[in-house]
Amino acid sequence: MKRHLVALAAVILATGACFIDTGSDDSGQPAPASPGPTGSGNRAEQPSADEFNQDIRDATRSAEDYWRAVFERSRIRFSPVRDIFPYEEEGEADCGGEPIPKNNAVYCPAGDFIAYDVNFAVTAFARVGDAFLYYLLGHEYAHGIQVRLGIQYSYTIQQELQADCMAGAYIGDSVKSGALTIEEGDIEEFREGLLAVGDDPNVPWFAPGAHGTAEQREESFFAGYERSLDACELPGG
Questions:
Q1: Rounded CA gap, 147 and 233, in Å?
Q2: How many CB atoms lie within 10 A of CB 150?
Q3: Is the pLDDT confidence value at 85 over 60?
Q4: Using CA atoms, how far apart are residues 1 and 207, in angstroms rounded to an integer?
């Protein structure tokens, strides 16, 4: 995979998007193996619908398989996130009565679903590569796991950084087990991408929807990637 994730910065600046998880107030080895993020070069063309949808399915399946294995080892019943679906317009989907904005991806605890703006995701896929989808789905799926573990869902930077750590653990453990494959140079691309999606320095750490500085997000993701879920401070961990 040679599509540099640092290009995600341009996507975010163009759309005003960030990974905001809207809501109102469940080391693994996926099987069968998913191909994982692959490809070469920042491409100018949009991915085909089949290519995009297949990567969404692969990312969803690998996340579900990973967390199912984690729960089974702990003898905890696992239930997948109820639904994962695209939307195009603001207000087309809502979470607990609140419209989900465009250029976003969210986990909604009220309905136990993940919704993503398909135009935003396709644009990021085209400019960044399919690794973006694995990170995107991994982060949002982690919020569903937080809820399943009994963590009170709230808009806190601690929960966002924990979700980054959990996404890192999912991807890192899956790569180590051979369930996902990445190419040489991908680690640096993840690092550059995480630096690109950090909060603006002017965003206070206590602001609703804050996700963490670039350095905090990078540190959290790679703590999970390198040390698995032990790094994520989960209940009972």
A1: 14
A2: 9
A3: yes
A4: 35
